[in-house]
Amino acid sequence: MARRRLLLLLKPFDVFPVRHSDASRTVSSQTSEILDYLDNRRKVHKDAIRSCQSVLQRKPIDWEPMLRNDLSRPIQNVDLVVTIGGDGTLLQASHFMDDSIPVLGVNSDPTQAKEVEDLNDAFDATRSTGYLCAANVNNFERMLDDILEDRSVPSKLMRIAICVNSRLMPKYALNDILVSHPCPAAVSRFSFRIKKYDQPCSPLVNCRSSGLRVSTAAGSTAAMLSAGGFRMPILSQDLQYMVREPISPGAASSLMHGVVKSDQVMDAAWFCKEGMIYIDGSHVRYSIEHGDNIMISSKAPVLRVYLPSHVSS
User: How far is C-alpha 129 from the geometric centre of its chain's CA atoms?
Assistant: First the structure.
């Protein structure tokens, strides 16, 4: 039997500010505490990587480490992707993956409730939620063994496909997309309607707002929930949308927030001189301009993810 091949995708160390000893005399005690905290986060992350690599060295598999920022082409010719960091690292990996390779997320530094409480007066010590990460340093070996011995099955998460003027965008969104003016203070002008089998099944909605957000079920617990949306079952095949800060919606108020079913598409038109489609945050984005047609749907390859038991159940 051929040895399994694994890609180990790492959150880089340099995202954590490093405390320089010669600067300690020029910062306040609160700033010093924050710098110490961030430096400790970097050390914890590095320790988590070392721990996971030590586990991998004991297994009959071939594996290769890679920093997530070095990803530039589709991930191929591996049997499993393991990400070490948080949800952001898994999201970045998803942009280079199709539905043929599963992914396991390792939360390298989970939030500690007592630590958040103890430091609450100084700063917010909350870290990555790790909502999509099934593993941490304590259970990584057990999770990996279950995968290698076929005792664990990945869940299939829906993603968002975007077509601009009938051209499919190369990246799919695992969490959400935001369609807006490049300047967040500017008004976005657009219209949309929901279609099924190329036939309208909702009225045409004309909007002036700060943009349009569309989320998957996985992304419904992120920005969508913070904006007043609702949590969706993680395996739902539907999308949720919300017009952000609509200006005088009037009779269309009830259409500012809703669902795009799995057999439907959102057909939108953009009416500003310039615009942007943001995929899972700010790093992946596509420019749009006046008159562009944008089709949004869940007709994208699923992502196979090993989920935490409390999320998948």
Answer: 11
CB 177 within 8 A of CB 278: yes
Name 243's bridge partners.
212
Name the amino acid, one letter, at 33. Answer: E
| Distance, CA of 43 to CA of 5 (rounded, Å) | 28
CA distance 41 to 44: 5
52/108 Cα distance (integer angstroms)? 10
How does pLDDT run across 214-235, given as a tens digit for each residue? 999 999 999 999 999 999 999 9
Residues 78, 101: contact at Cβ < 8 Å? yes
CA–CA gap between residue 117 and residue 79 (Å, rounded): 41
Strands 61-67, 103-107: pairing kind: unpaired
Model-level pTM greater than 0.85?
Answer: yes
Which residue reads 């970097």 in tokens? Answer: 42
CA 202, 301, 82, 58 torsion-angle sign: positive
